[in-house]
């Protein structure tokens, strides 16, 4: 059979490639972003309880209502904004799915979407499979901030949306109030949508405030705001998340969702609905993750890697020019094989493979894992 590829330029995601290489070489895996420590036992117990109580059939298409209510309460508490759990929140099988669904909801062939690079690797294929074009703008190296003049220059009548991701994967950069002001000015009076990837909302450091679209009614009116329970509760394998959008936008989002996943895993939604009342679980996250970042930074001082700043997410990038001048993909493969530490080459997050000779480390790992990795890197 002949098959014409819908995504002819896409290979296997770098996360799968590096994780496979890590296990082949028994390397410490600081590549793919997932915690290697346990998720909260109280939450798994609640899911167990839900299964035993018989919550094992389809949930409603937009999600288990008590979970949507818990999310609405959390949004009101954190961002001083009351969203309607009935019409403005949909539970999705992960954050990636929420972003894909939002893009599929709004895009027509020929539309343009502004994407900042380096960019999480699903965005551009998600745009292209909808027959639209990604217009990429480089974040300014090495602090990876947004150059708003470039955004202004890129906007034209075909611009359908801008994707914002803060805290940012892979760089750990974080948008601030000035960025929000710039964004407000640029989209005011236009029909440009915002897809806001906020899966790292609680992984934010040094007292920074998370600039959620949910704080700003003029931005929220045009936004699909996407979250992931995997990041907040250390359960990336659950693939559960949610999208928040104004009711008119959400009604269209649900038309796409209902004929794709239709609904999400019920017992996990039931468990999460109860667990979310525990505010400490997310309020303590920034400090806990910052501690992991800082421990990693101290240990890495003994190596020849030069870390770039990370203000959020669970990633930190590093330059390796004191060790090698190889392309970052080659270097990351060699580091896995020879030093036994897997990372992600940041050029994988650029469509044209732009290579600043930077690799990404994930520090959401046990103290023991981080120590082992740093020891191996010291000797490299
Ligand atoms: N966006 C970004 C920037 C991410 O890093 C992730 C985590 N893989 C996601 C979205 C999606 O998360 P999920 O696993 O819930 O699909
Ligand atoms: N978000 C994670 C990362 O950036 C993993 C994503 C994936 O494996 N698809 O590493």
Mean pLDDT: 97
How many strands in all? 13
Assign an overall shape: globular
Q: Beta-sheet strand percentage?
A: 5-15%
Outline the secondary-structure elements.
Layout (H helix, E strand, L loop, with lengths): L13 H11 L3 E2 L11 H12 L12 H15 L9 E4 L2 H12 L5 E6 L5 H6 L4 E6 L9 H7 L4 E7 L11 H11 L5 E5 L19 H4 L2 E6 H4 L8 E4 L2 H12 L7 H10 L4 H4 L1 H16 L5 E2 L7 E5 L8 H12 L1 E2 L1 E2 L12 E5 L4 H12 L2
Parallel strand pairs: 1-11, 3-4, 3-5, 5-6, 6-7
Antiparallel strand pairs: 2-8, 7-8, 9-10, 10-13, 12-13
Helix pairs in contact: 2-11, 3-11, 4-10, 13-15
The protein binds 4'-deoxy-4'-aminopyridoxal-5'-phosphate and glutamine.
3D architecture notes:
With 380 residues, this protein is an alpha/beta fold. The protein is 39% helix and 15% strand. It has helices at residues 14-24, 41-52, 65-79, 95-106, 123-128, 148-154, 177-187, 217-220, 229-232, 247-258, 266-275, 280-283, 285-300, 328-339, 367-378, and strands spanning 28-29, 89-92, 112-117, 133-138, 159-165, 193-197, 223-228, 241-244, 306-307, 315-319, 341-342, 344-345, 358-362. The strands form three sheets. Strands 2-8-7-6-5-3-4 form a seven-stranded mixed sheet, with helices on both faces. The chain is globular, with a radius of gyration of 20 Å. 48% of the residues are buried. The structure holds 4'-deoxy-4'-aminopyridoxal-5'-phosphate and glutamine (GLN).
């Amino acid at each position: 059979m002949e098959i014409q590829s819908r995504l002819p330029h896409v290979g296997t995601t770098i996360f799968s490639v590096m994780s496979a290489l890590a296990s082949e070489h028994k390397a410490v895996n600081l590549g793919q972003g997932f915690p290697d420590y346990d998720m909260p036992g109280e939450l798994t117990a609640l899911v167990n309880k839900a299964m035993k109580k018989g919550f094992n059939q389809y949930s409603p298409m937009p999600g288990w209502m008590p979970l949507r209510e818990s999310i609405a309460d959390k949004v009101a508490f954190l961002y001083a904004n009351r969203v309607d759990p009935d019409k403005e929140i949909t539970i999705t099988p992960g954050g990636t799915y929420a972003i894909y669904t939002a893009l599929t909801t709004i895009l027509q062939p020929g539309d343009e979407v502004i994407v900042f690079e380096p960019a999480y690797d699903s965005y551009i294929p998600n745009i292209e499979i909808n027959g639209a074009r990604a217009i990429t703008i480089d974040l300014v190296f090495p602090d990876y901030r947004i150059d708003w003049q470039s955004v202004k220059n890129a906007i034209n009548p075909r611009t359908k949306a801008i994707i914002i991701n803060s805290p940012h994967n892979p760089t750990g950069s974080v948008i601030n109030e000035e960025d929000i002001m710039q964004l407000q000015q640029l989209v005011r009076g236009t029909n440009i949508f915002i897809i806001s990837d906020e899966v790292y909302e609680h992984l934010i450091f040094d007292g920074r405030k998370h600039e959620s679209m949910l704080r700003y009614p003029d931005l929220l009116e045009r936004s699909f705001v996407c979250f992931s329970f995997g990041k907040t509760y250390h359960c990336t394998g659950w693939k559960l998340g949610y999208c928040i959008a104004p009711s008119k936008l959400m009604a269209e989002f649900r038309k796409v969702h209902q004929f794709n996943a239709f609904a999400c895993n019920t017992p996990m939604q039931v468990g999460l609905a109860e667990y979310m009342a525990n505010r400490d679980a997310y309020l303590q996250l920034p400090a806990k993750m910052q501690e992991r970042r800082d421990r990693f930074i101290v240990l890495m001082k003994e190596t020849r890697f030069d870390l770039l700043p990370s203000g959020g997410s669970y990633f930190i990038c590093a330059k390796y020019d004191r060790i090698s001048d190889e392309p970052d993909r080659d270097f990351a493969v060699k580091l896995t094989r020879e030093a036994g530490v897997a990372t992600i080459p940041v050029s994988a997050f650029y469509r044209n493979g732009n290579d600043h000779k930077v690799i990404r480390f994930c520090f959401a790992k046990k103290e023991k894992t981080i120590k082992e990795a740093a020891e191996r890197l010291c000797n490299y």
